[in-house]
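Record 1 of the preview.
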Amino acid sequence: MPYFMTMNSTRQPIIQRDDFWDDSWGDIVDKLVVPVDRGQKVGAKYFPLGGLLEEKVKVIPNLFSIEFWYCTELIKNTIEQLESGWHGFHPFSLRNPYEDNEITQLYIINIVGWIDAIDVERSDNLVTRTFPSGKEITRVSPLHLSKDKREIALHDDMIKCRHLWVSPKADGPGKAFVSDELHDKIKQCGKPHSHLDFYRTK
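->
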């Protein structure tokens, strides 16, 4: 079964993205941040082209999330082997803040796939939020999950042949789902993944 993939509190790169829009922050949230979060395809013109690494880290992970998912070309190629042409990969030049030279080329992943595949009735340790309107939403949160238990249940028929997607019923940094095959390939890509948490589903 697939995995729920999020970031943990282990130290990760801190990136200051370049200013890349002329309109207000509210507009860019509506045109970029929210659609990406909801698994919608977004035009390239809305993505930043680069940014500065604010703090030194021993290694730049090949997959990590800071508002968006960032990856190296190795991970990009791995995902495209499984879901060719499905997701968007937008080049992002990560630069040294002192010399302003490029440290490495990354990609921002526009995960395309908003699949409401979480089976609430069969899942354990979900969190229910009540909004001022009285509406209740039950969601998955990594703060309430155990790595040694399978607590998230999925509708198999909704994720058949899929390898990477996001869900409206998931909270947490990154909050993406990956197939068994993609999970294994990510683990085999060579750099440490201590900053990623994987929760096996059922």
